[in-house]
């Protein structure tokens, strides 16, 4: 089916089918054609007719119905807000900062983190003080240190490329049949995206300031870095961190985030992140670093589901927990045991210096987290 041969009003319908296929829904071309025919037969008189036609013809799997609804809202209504219901019937609210999309160790005692962990929502504000932290070198090195991938875009090259037949023929025609040196092109090598998800709940309050300074350095040093905070809500703060002056950037972040030092609903907030197509795309092929103690209260089924989905999208999935700064630490909680098999790295997040060293080493291969911690235990 050619998009150019279709009426202008049919383009969003065709685009919705393409969107679902992009996110792994089993949608055949015949289903997209049937969807468009069903909408034609229904009128449509309202958006509800389009919604019913989509359900009847595109047939989303029952276990992905919520994701289908989020894609529908995002595509047809332009909505980036999503609500994920938890076991406590509380909603996970998402705040987007409105930015354009693309691309000496401080140890916390384990018993103190456990006492501070909670799922109750508490809204508050934060103030960040200026201090020296040695992140300048990290910012300069980050872009070159990130793992690279081959882009589908190509650039001209003088050697070790493929023949650019179209431009070479154009040169031959312009030279009246003479054969000049052939023109070559090669695929670009670009750094992978860096996605950081920062836990700002009460159990992480001793580390929040350092993590946000690290995030600011990451955004300043890498062109395709994305930063989110989560606690009882999910907030995208990338645009605020693009302000060059760190004090101004962190002041903007402090005003933007509402759930400082409150409870945490890690599973529901990560599922809310994945339910927004634009946000979920940030994780595709990216280096995903989650800065959290992962002290999930109650049932951890949602956390396990979210981490499995993140692992399937990400190039490398890392959990950096300050609790690992204690030599006695073991991933012994039921939540950590459940997600350990899908983690590529489970590292110490108690030291900013250690975190910068780890992030700069992401291009180097390492054993899976489960293999490392099995040897340690």
Short description:
By secondary structure, this protein is of the alpha/beta class. It contains 16 helices and ten strands. Helix content is 43%, strand content 14%.
Question: Could you walk me through the main structural features you see in this protein, from its secondary elements to its overall organization?
Answer:
- It is a single chain.
- The protein is α/β, with parallel strands linked by helices and 377 residues long.
- The chain folds into three domains: 3-63, no CATH class; 110-144 and 192-376, Rossmann fold; 152-189, no CATH class.
- It has helices at residues 11-22, 29-42, 47-58, 65-77, 110-116, 136-145, 165-174, 205-221, 238-241, 246-256, 266-275, 277-283, 301-313, 334-339, 352-360, 369-376; strands at residues 93-95, 148-157, 162-163, 184-191, 194-199, 225-230, 233-236, 287-291, 316-321, 345-348.
- The chain has a seven-stranded mixed beta sheet with strand order 1-7-6-5-8-9-10, sandwiched between helices. Strands 2-4-3 form a three-stranded antiparallel beta sheet, with helices on one face.
- Helix 6 (136-145) crosses helix 8.
- The longest helix has 17 residues, at 205-221.
- It is globular, with a radius of gyration of 24 Å.
Strand content: 5-15%
Number of strand segments = 10
Oligomeric status of the shown chains? single chain
* Rg value: 24 Å
Q: CATH topology of the largest domain, anyone?
A: Rossmann fold
Known CATH architecture of the largest domain: 3-Layer(aba) Sandwich
First-residue to last-residue Cα separation: 57 Å
Q: Can you tell me the CATH class of the largest domain? A: Alpha Beta
Counting structural domains, the number is: 3
Supply the number of helical segments.
Answer: 16
Principal-axes geometry comes out as globular
Largest sheet: 7 strands, mixed
What is the helical fraction, as a range of percent?
40-55%
* Structural class designation: alpha/beta
Tell me the series of helices and strands, N- to C-terminal: HHHHEHHEEHEEHEEHHHHEHEHEHH
**Overall pLDDT metric:** 82
Low-pLDDT ranges: 82-89, 100-117
Strands in their spatial order, largest beta sheet = 1-7-6-5-8-9-10
CATH superfamily of the largest domain: von Willebrand factor, type A domain
Organism: Mesorhizobium tianshanense
Region (Disordered): 86-119
Protein name: VWFA domain-containing protein
Pfam family, one: VWA_CoxE
